[in-house]
What we know:
Blueprint lengths: L3 H16 L6 H8 L3 H7 L3 H23 L6 H18 L1 H10 L7 H10 L1 H12 L8 H21 L6 H15 L10
Helix pairs in contact: 1-2, 1-6, 4-5, 4-7, 5-6, 5-8, 5-9, 5-10, 6-9, 9-10
Amino acid sequence: xxxxxxxxxxxxxxxxxxxxxxxxxxxxxxxxxxxxxxxxxxxxxxxxxxxxxxxxxxxxxxxxxxxxxxxxxxxxxxxxxxxxxxxxxxxxxxxxxxxxxxxxxxxxxxxxxxxxxxxxxxxxxxxxxxxxxxxxxxxxxxxxxxxxxxxxxxxxxxxxxxxxxxxxxxxxxxxxxxxxxxxxxxxxxxxxxx
Length: 194
């Protein structure tokens, strides 16, 4: 059985995706969650605190998934490939979370502390992208560009599979990664151990 706090979070996430953060009053969240507005504010002092908690909940789920399946002792190329596959797999298994992130992952409503907390949770991501650049595996040596390029492409493909689940399978996910990699890689030989 889920707690009142969890129910508020799940309800808020659904309403934020349906109506937008600004267009979703806390009174509606409380009503839809079946709790008093005072109960909502007992658990979350502000709407921003609720959004911050949603980020933490979702990123904890994604990181937990990564920790369960990510293999450290492989090449940098294979690490990048794993991140691509794991993120899309996680998104397919957690479409509500993926939809929220698609709407609000880089949204201006996210407090600086929520964004900073999220960034800290993904240190291993940054290490992989720095390693990719240090090994001269990509055409551009801008860390910010490489990270954004990867994130946008991966999210776009994840969204495609959520919208077209009949197209989703491991082979298709790998093809999307190869398309991404062939566009950004210095080495056009796909699948080599780098």
